Amino acid sequence: MAMLTYLAILFLVKVDAQTYYCFENGGNYTELSAYQMSLQSFLNFAPFNLGYRGFFNFSAGPPDPIAGIALCRADLQLQDCEACVQNATDEIVKLCPFRRRAILWRENCTLRFSDVPIDGVLALTPLVVLPNPANVSIVQRFNASLTRLLDDLRRQAAASVLFMKVAVGNQTVANSVNIYSMVQCTPDISAGDCDRCLSNAFQQLPLNGSIGTTVLCPSCSLRATGAAFISSLSARSKTIIVVVVVAVAGLVIAGCAVLVFRRRKIKKQKRPFEIIKNDDDDDDDDDEIRTVESLQYELGKIRAATDDFSEANELGRGGFGVVYQGILENGKKIAVKRLSSSSDQGDLEFKNEVLVMAKLQHKNLLKILGFTIEGTERLLIYQFAENLSLDRFIFDPVKRSQLGWDQRYKIIEGIAQGLLYLHEDSRFRIIHRDLKPSNVLLDGEMNPQIADFGLARLFDGTETSTCRVVGTHGYMLPPEYAFRGHLSVKIDVYSFGVLILEIISGRKNSSFFDGDREEDMLSFAWRSWQEGTAESMIDPILREGSSGSSGDMLRCIHIGLLCVQENAADRPTMVSVVLMLNGSSNTIPTPPSRPAFFKQI
């Protein structure tokens, strides 16, 4: 009776061999919101990225973060694992509609998502106990055998080093009574947390001789029945063994390589950061290393320049750290990006940004002056943009008035030229993947400079895919990227289209209001275009002022709508965009088709 009361309090529901829980403390998301788009990405990716462990974890954001986990029972074959998770992705959104936190346990797999971090975090609730009404007569003997078996399996699972925290076993109690059991933790939690989770699960067992019980919680599960239920761990175990053997072989090879190239490593030991190339390019490699070494700054000089990273010199905070202003000994003003030591992606983004930006030279790209790697510090040093970022102007009710149409048009053109260079003319073809007003800086003459290449991706000219969807929702998530992970330069084109509409309207895509009604900006822009009232998109400051022609503004709205079309193939290239902005293209396709994520009202 106590257990039934507990489950009722948790609003737990069991339907047809599945148990689910819709958390109330997370609140709800809204239709077509950033959270819904990220959730859909997780649900799309999960069934096809489970791998040999039968486990997938996912995270996206900011601005509206989401984390997700999918886990299969360890004895499940991969195709059955994928099918189970696929069914769970369809079910969970129906069972917990618009919930920001939910968990679904199916017989063979678990699916969970949340708006707070869950990867590596021990979670003991909600907890479900599913007892079997069948009991044995030898209760004390049965309970003693069950306790010994589960205690042994608990230690085995927690101590597992083969990438899966799982243990299986059986125990004979009497001639006609056997216990078959499996315990399993999510692979992301520590050994200690796995032990704690399973210990907590054991304490929930009804030691009344029940011959079959299942205990489920977010971070672990246990099953103990009187009949064999485990299919086979052999296939998955073999795969894991192969992975371990390969890993060990790799370590051996790496050790040999260290011995062979010891002399070369000693020669280069003062180089804390190198660009690695093929062995055939030794001369070029040395040139690259010398170039990068010339960009390195001593940590002490940067500390002095920023007054030891004082709050008074803080310019802003981002997903990977804090940006400070500083003044070098020679009087030169700089901006310093200090990567967070707690960021899981800090080193990756740091190396990416240094390697890419050091080679990019364009007036509409922010210039990197150098970098620092010392201890745990990872610093990027840039030229200082006197007017900081674009968002501080176009979204500010006072500063927005400083940007007339001529100035805004100049900014739009400059951003387009910078993207064209990245996509077509630079040494590397690059997808920026995070184009937004806060990543466009303005120099003393209000010239735009694209910044923050931490998420940039090299591009070989063909469409590819990724399982890691990154960027800023509302800008970076056209449907082919959000739902299928397809990468192409058309992602940046989409972001540029949103940016044009924000610059012209002076309003954020994420918080757009039409009178008293909140509406998606892209939907409003397209509907207004269709109805012949596109002037309503224009910032009142521009409509009231005398600078610029409404024809040019409408032309830019048209181009913006072309850039955000639902089908990536229908979006123009940046070459076409630049031509249209310069008036060199006599014909612009009209009308634009419906934008991505159009919301009908």
Provide key terms for this protein:
single chain, alpha+beta, Killer Toxin P4, Chain A, Phosphorylase Kinase, domain 1, 6-stranded antiparallel sheet, 36% helix
What does this structure look like?
The protein is an alpha+beta fold and 601 residues long. The protein has four domains: 2-114, 2-Layer Sandwich (Killer Toxin P4, Chain A); 128-229, Gnk2 domain, C-X8-C-X2-C motif (Killer Toxin P4, Chain A), CATH 3.30.430; 299-383, Phosphorylase Kinase, domain 1; 391-581, Transferase(Phosphotransferase) domain 1 (Transferase(Phosphotransferase), domain 1, Orthogonal Bundle), CATH 1.10.510. Helix content is 36%, strand content 19%. The chain has 18 helices and 24 strands. A hairpin with a 2-residue loop joins strand 12 (314-318) and strand 13 (321-327). Helix 4 (139-159) runs antiparallel to helix 5, helix 12 runs antiparallel to helix 18 (574-581) and helix 14 (490-505) packs antiparallel against helix 17 (550-563). The longest helix is centred in the middle third of the chain and has 27 residues, at 234-260. Mean pLDDT is 79; it is low at 1-16 and 234-282. One of its GO terms (molecular function) is protein serine/threonine kinase activity. Its main location: membrane. The chain crosses the membrane at residues 240-261. It is a single-pass membrane protein. Residues 1-17 form the signal peptide.
